[in-house]
Amino acid sequence: MIALVTGGTGFIGSHLVENLIKRGYKVRCLIRERSNLRWLDGLPIDIAYGDCTDESSLTKSVKSVDMVFHIAGVTKSIDEETYFKVNAIGTKNLLMACIKNNPGLKRFVYLSSQAASGPCNNGEKKCEEDPCEPVSPYGKSKRMGEEFALALSKELPVVILRPCAVYGPREKDIYSFFKCISKGIKPIFWGGKQLLSLCYIQDIIDGIILASESPLNSGEIFFLSDGEDYQLKQIGDIFSEAIGVNALEIPIPKSFLWGVAYISEYYSKISKKPPILNRGKLNEITKPNWLCDITKAKTMLGYNPKIKLPEGVKLTFEWYKKEKWL
What we know:
It is built from 12 helices and 14 strands. It has helices at 11-22, 59-62, 80-101, 114-117, 137-151, 175-182, 201-213, 232-243, 254-271, 279-285, 295-301, 309-322, and strands spanning 2-6, 26-31, 45-49, 67-70, 107-111, 158-163, 165-167, 185-189, 195-196, 198-200, 220-224, 230-231, 248-252, 289-290. The strands form 4 sheets. Strands 3-2-1-4-5-6-11 form a 7-stranded parallel sheet, sandwiched between helices. The protein has a 3-stranded mixed sheet with strand order 12-9-14.
């Protein structure tokens, strides 16, 4: 079995590549010329150079593969246009390249995001059947990628996955929360009552592989999480215990965060680097309920997440220490 993985140099993609190799897959990675291959170094992979924003560069990479795992995407950008160019049009380009050059493809797995569906506004958990109401340019671009995939689902065997916030070794966003806790600071937003779904990287990888190997109708969508509901304050407490630090809770007012977002965006235009925090991300952070329901994944995929937050945080913290990130 030959698998093409886009985004193989990233956090989720590199873990997927390792797991596919362990399962006996021959893995081809679609990589841009200037990509950092740190997490792929030494792995028995075939490298195909190309860019999802350029359909003509994808022809050779999609030929003769059995599976496509589209993990690549932009989570931070200087401008909104880039989100849609990469996450939406890039997905459409890859889908079209597969249709034109690999009509016998067995499965196209598109890793979308919970952000594509948006927060839950009815006080319950978000389900796949609920309307999509993304609140950030990132979420809107991932939803547009989903729409392209669904529109072509009669021509390709497509499955769409919406993981929640994912953490684990190599992750760099939630890592900033680890850094705060390790310094004795526990930031609390909106009284710490915000509800979140989280998932350790290995459970997400298991879900991705299950989605690729399970008999499914084209166009199915699944949420992925560890199945638990967490309050932000509870998350901070679990992190503090895992790290072994008695962190001080520091309430962060909304006005302060909006100020940080505006300043970050301003300096981003000068530095030409993505902002630390932008208004789109803050729109997500300010929503009170980001819980998702994984009943469908459990029922149809046999998805069974094994690692809950306390164990996952310990594993992640140990890796950060080993790699001298903390």
